[in-house]
Amino acid sequence: MIVRDQPSSLRLFLVLQGSVVPMILSKILSITLLSVIVLLVDLHVMTLPHISIAGMGIFGVALSLFLGFRNNAAYDRWWEARKLWGTMIADVRNLGRHMCIYVGKGEDRERILSCVVAFAHLHRGFLRGVDVRDQITGWVGAEKADVMLAHRNPADAALRSMADQIADLSRTGGISGYGQLTLSQTLSSLALAQAGCERISTTPLPYVYSLLVRRTTYLYCWLLPFALIEAANWFAPVVAAVAAYVFFGLQAVTNELEQPFRHVQNGLPLDAMCRTIEISVAEALDRTPPEPLLPGNHVLT
């Protein structure tokens, strides 16, 4: 995720970090080149068909509505994913307080809270498809880390391990029935947030709608130079380039926001949020907390 102040007016058009320009530059240049070729052929070789600029305006408005709707849907996914991770952070902090109230200090509290850190990293590993063994070994040990990672859903295995430990405490009288119920509700909330993230990760926006928007964008940008021959003359390539930047740019932004857990510049900072969970648990266990992750070159991972 990009973390930086808004650039000044002079630097606004020069900042490329976090911009979609590098991703769509080839498309912008191709539309600009097409516009130049169309203009030269119409002036010096043969008269080409001229499209009404008013008709292209109506076409552009319809395309803008399509792109706006898809962009809103993608942003809703990104924002929901951020809220789900915020819920998990709050649940972890609540779990730390509940363990202090119902279990007290001791090895049982340390084992359960260490498992919740493992849960966060394992969930991040599932969403991003990365290996998190090194991050969880220091909390739960190498043997338990291997056991969790052997499951098809390692994060769910971490939750089950916590549930088993709470059940053992209840059987031995280490926790009251009300305490067991409270901790169980917190684990259920973590599981609901986990399932919500998995739903977002495994269910993209409908492909048929994405295909329609992409095709319409290309058709509009390909036809636009024929409408700019009379309306803009030699300024046509510039207008075509700006239109290509707007429409292809919105399409690229939507593609990034649609999958908020990917390790990209505009993705969610899952590493930093897992570090926040580590800090919360370390402080609940009266340990020295690790330092929070800071943006590197304005990028928070």
Annotate the secondary structure layout.
Elements: H1 21-44, H2 53-102, H3 107-128, H4 133-140, H5 142-149, H6 154-171, H7 177-202, H8 207-231, H9 236-258, H10 270-284
Helix pairs in contact: 1-8, 1-9, 2-3, 2-7, 2-8, 2-9, 2-10, 3-4, 3-6, 3-10, 4-5, 6-7, 8-9
Polypeptide structure, described:
The protein has 301 residues and is mainly α. Helix content is 73%, strand content 0%. The protein has helices spanning 21-44, 53-102, 107-128, 133-140, 142-149, 154-171, 177-202, 207-231, 236-258, 270-284. The chain is elongated. The N and C termini lie close together (6 Å). The model has no long low-confidence stretch (mean pLDDT 86).
